[in-house]
Specification:
five-stranded parallel β-sheet, Rossmann fold, 5 helices
């Protein structure tokens, strides 16, 4: 079962995504900021990451850069309410698979996830060490 790390300081967003993913057979881990997300990433097998950009302690762009430095092949989906063409471009330059503005369509997010780690996909399952 693919494990998805959800990194977002908006608890309601995390709970919504988590509920939908669990109903579809995914395992989830959650973190309220990039620093906590990085600890999960470094200690668990993670197949895909969903992250916000604006968070306390470590923002999503810093988190994305660090994740991609450690494991360039892990797919990362960026969600943000603070979207701009510049931040979308920067996220993709840093290795994000895609960038979705909040509020997002859950069906669109699920299609992206299914395409990356759904049944029959070769999910990335790598433990990362510092």
């Amino acid at each position: 079962m693919p494990r998805i790390l959800i990194v977002d300081d908006e608890r309601s967003v995390v709970l919504l995504i988590r509920q939908v993913l669990i109903e579809r057979g995914y395992e989830t881990c959650e973190a309220p900021n990039g620093l906590a997300g990085l600890k999960w990433f470094q200690s668990q097998f993670i197949d895909l990451i969903i992250t916000d950009l604006k968070m306390p302690n470590m923002d999503g762009m810093t988190f994305l850069r660090e994740v991609k430095r450690q494991e360039p092949t892990i797919p990362v989906i960026v969600l943000t309410v603070h979207g701009s063409p510049e931040s979308a471009s920067e996220a993709q330059e840093c290795g994000a698979f895609t960038y979705l503005a909040k509020p997002f369509e859950m069906d669109e997010l699920l299609r992206l996830i299914e395409g990356l780690v759904g049944p029959g996909k070769n999910a990335v399952s790598l433990a990362c060490v510092s």
